[in-house]
Each structure stands twice: as structure tokens, then as C-alpha cells.
Design brief:
It contains 14 helices and 17 strands. By secondary structure, it is an alpha/beta fold. The structure holds adenosine-5'-triphosphate (ATP). The site of adenosine-5'-triphosphate has 22 residues, from strand 1, helix 1 and helix 2.
């Protein structure tokens, strides 16, 4: 099936909003075995939109629109689709009732201009939208489909997941299923070499990708149904797990902070942080994981040297080794543990950049973990942007926590 995506809204053309809807939809089409040929962005102009849809109608089997379903004069998606279908819209009584009830539930009367949100045409059915007033439109004629979804991403994504994707999947004869296996601690080349006997497989296939949180392996299979595609992947996944075993830390959408959080929970351990160069980003990242209150005790941002000392970093350590040193990072990790009474403490000190500090190059970072009866540390200089340097230090700190937990097993 040849598809195209149309994002509708002058705000998109002006650069006021980022077209995340296209990205969302595009990323989901391969899984449904649908080939994306074109993506367009267009303003709220009826004639130009009708023109674009007419072209799409000729060259594609499926047009996926988002935006322009509101009640205002500017919202012209329905009008443009009617032009392409060469059909007149009519008010659907059931939709009108629903719309009026929606407003009544909010204690207001429906403005009459909202009535066009109850329109349908002979080739169009409404797609339910419990999150908003505008139902979507599924128009189908002469073997071609136009789907119009609301612009607000929360409404569009729900409609996609619950209504549109399942129906497209039912009609598809080639479903693609992917599974991502996430590793850390080994380089791309090493992982590639270790799994080289598996790389010959074509369905399922396997790809190796370097990401900020480690090396990812993406296993992909194609079959007539989702179940069959998933079955094809299983033996390959088992083979990868046999080869890479201990370096695998997660799957699919799982993040490093979620994986580390799970390990802490399983072991019944708590954690606290003392950060300098990363300014609290590590604590913030740890708390991105739902349920982190089970193990996260506290995060101290000790930016100034005197504050590090006030929170328990020995002055002698800083005098002897300097504030940007692995010894200070270790002392910060131990101080975080003591101050917060946690099982594990993490310390980060370094130069976020772009300028050097105390003769230390930008991108120099010292990260340490203290677990009471042991610890681990990591020092490196890898300079990119300030933001990147901070994020890398946080990723390495989480990495180090994981290493410490595995070593203590
Ligand atoms: P509404 O009923 O809210 O007016 P609509 O279907 O008419 O919905 P638009 O008015 O086109 O949608 O867009 C509403 C809001 O949705 C925009 O202000 C923007 O915040 C968001 N939005 C629209 N299109 C996109 C897009 N392609 N990507 C991301 N956000 C979008």
C-alpha cells in the first residue's frame, strides 16, 4: 500500500510548532507493511489543500492527514476532502447529539459553528475521538482511503492507536515486527563481531546501531500476521541473548534509568547523588522512571567548592587532588550516601564546557559510585556541547551504578 502524510496548519509552515504528528505516523507505517512515499506540510488554505489531496488521491492508496478539524473558518480539512470526493457534507444526527452532549457535560452550550464537526459524506464514516470534539474522518472511495485525524498530538495518537492502526493492520498482508535489544559496555565493532553468524539471517534480520546509551540490536521480521512475525523473531532473540547475555540491560522502549531503577528495586537498595558539573541532571534523570520514590532518597547539587565541603567532602581531598578529580568524585559519592542515609551514593565532578576550568579541558568528567563496602569510578575527557557533556556524564553514572550492582551480586 502506497501512503502519504499531510500535516495541515499554517502554524507548522510558520515554524511556530514542530510537526511531530508526521514523525509519529511515519515511524509506525513500516510496522504495518505500508510504504510511505511522500510527506507534505500545508497551511490552512482550502484551495491549496484540495489541490494537494487531489494529487495524493491520484498517486497514493492512502492519505493520512492531521489538523484542520476544528470548528473555525480556518479549519478546512473536511471541506477540502469533500471537494476531492465530489460529495456534499450533511449533518449526521447521531454525531450532532454526541457533540451537544459533549458540551452539555462541560456545562456549556455548543456554538453553532461547531456543527460542522458532525458532518459526514456518503463515503465517510466518523472515527471516535473521546479526547476532543472533532471526530476523525475515514473516507473511502474507488479503492482509495483518506483518513483525517485531529491536530493535537494527544488526540491524534489515541485515534491512531485505538482506531486507525488496528483497522490498517487488519487490511495489511505484511506485518513487520521489531524487537530492540539494548546493551552496554561493549563497542559497536565488538558486538557486530560477536553476533556475526546471525547477521546473515534475512527474515528475521538483525541490525547493530550505536546509541548514546549503548549498542542497540534491532531484530525485524515480516509475516502475514503479527503473531507469525513475532514467532519468527523468537529463535533469533534467544540466540542473541545466549551470545551477549550479561551486557544486555533492556529491551524496546526501556530507558537506562528504568533498567537501573528495576535493579535497585529488586535488590531493595536506595540511592542518593551529589552532583557538580551536571547540576542535578542525574537526580532528575533517575526520577524520570515511574516508581523512583521506592529507591531515590535525595539529590544534592554541590556546585561551589565550599558547598561540597559543607556537605561532607573532606577539604584535604580537594586541596590535594583538586576539585575536578576522581578522588573528589569518590568523596562526593561517599558524602551523598552519608548525608542521605542511602545504600548507594553517586558523585559527579567535571568541566561541562565550553571553557576549561582549573586547567582541565572541557568535557573532562569524573564519575564515582560508593556502595559502602566498595565502589567504582570512571574518568574521561570527551568534549562536545555543554548539554552533551552533561548528558554523557549522567549516562556514564547510571552505567557505573549498574556495574556496581552486577559486581555485588
Ligand atoms: P482543534 O479542534 O483543537 O482545532 P484541529 O484538528 O483543528 O484541532 P489544529 O487546529 O490544526 O487541529 O491544531 C491544533 C493544535 O494541535 C496546534 O495548535 C498544535 O499545537 C497541534 N498540532 C497540529 N498539527 C500538529 C502537528 N502536525 N504536529 C504536532 N502538533 C500539531
Amino acid at each position: 500500500m502506497k501512503a502519504e502524510i499531510v500535516s495541515i496548519g499554517t502554524e507548522i509552515l510558520l515554524g511556530d510548532i514542530l510537526d511531530t504528528n508526521s514523525n509519529y505516523i511515519a515511524s509506525r507505517l513500516p510496522g504495518l507493511g505500508i510504504d510511505l512515499y511522500y510527506t507534505s506540510q500545508i497551511g490552512d488554505n482550502r484551495a491549496r489543500l484540495a489541490d494537494l489531496l487531489r494529487r495524493g488521491w491520484e498517486r497514493s492508496d492512502l492519505i493520512l492527514c492531521s489538523g484542520g478539524l476544528g470548528p473555525t473558518e480556518d479549519d478546512v480539512t473536511r471541506e477540502a476532502i469533500c471537494e476531492v470526493l465530489e460529495e456534499e457534507p450533511r449533518i449526521d444526527p447521531a454525531l450532532e447529539d454526541e457533540l451537544r452532549a459533549f458540551f452539555a457535560r462541560r456545562g456549556s452550550q455548543m456554538p453553532e459553528r461547531n456543527l460542522k464537526q458532525a458532518w459526514l459524506t456518503p463515503s465517510t464514516r466518523a472515527i471516535p475521538n473521546p479526547r476532543g470534539t472533532a471526530p476523525g474522518w475515514w473516507s473511502e472511495k474507488h479503492g482509495k482511503i483518506i483518513i483525517a485525524m485531529p491536530g493535537p498530538p494527544g488526540e491524534m495518537q489515541r485515534m491512531w492507536e485505538k482506531e486507525v492502526a488496528p483497522e490498517l493492520e487488519r487490511r495489511s498482508d505484511a506485518i513487520i515486527v521489531s524487537r530492540t535489544i539494548k546493551t552496554s559496555g561493549l563497542g559497536e565493532g565488538t558486538v557486530d563481531e560477536m553476533i556475526s553468524p546471525l547477521l546473515k539471517s534475512t527474515n528475521p534480520s538483525i541490525g547493530v546501531y550505536a546509541k548514546p546509551d549503548g549498542i542497540h540490536l534491532r531484530l525485524t521480521s515480516k509475516a502475514a500476521t503479527r503473531e507469525e512475525a513475532a514467532r519468527l523473531i523468537e529463535p533469533l532473540e534467544e540466540a542473541v541473548e545466549r551470545i551477549l547475555g550479561g551486557v544486555i540491560w533492556g529491551h524496546d522502549d526501556e530507558t537506562f534509568e528504568v533498567a537501573v531503577g528495576r535493579m535497585l528495586r529488586e535488590r531493595g537498595l536506595t540511592i542518593a547523588t551529589m552532583e557538580s558539573a551536571t547540576g542535578g541532571l542525574l537526580a532528575s534523570t533517575i526520577t524520570d522512571a515511574p516508581g523512583s520514590s521506592n529507591y531515590m532518597v535525595g539529590g544534592l547539587v554541590a556546585y561551589a567548592t565550599e558547598q561540597k565541603i559543607a556537605w561532607g567532602v573532606p577539604r584535604e581531598v580537594i586541596d590535594e587532588h583538586g576539585v575536578i578529580s576522581v578522588e573528589t568524585a569518590r568523596a562526593m559519592a561517599a558524602a551523598a550516601r552519608r548525608q542521605c542515609g542511602s545504600d548507594i551514593g553517586v558523585g559527579i565532578t567535571g568541566v561541562a564546557g565550553p571553557d576549561p576550568q582549573d586547567d582541565k579541558a572541557p568535557g573532562t568528567m569524573h564519575v564515582a559510585v560508593d556502595s559502602g563496602d566498595g565502589g567504582d569510578s570512571m574518568s574521561y575527557t570527551y568534549n562536545q556541547s555543554r548539554d552533551h557533556n552533561k548528558r554523557r556524564a549522567v549516562a556514564n553514572a547510571l552505567q557505573l551504578v549498574r556495574r556496581t550492582l552486577l559486581a555485588a551480586r
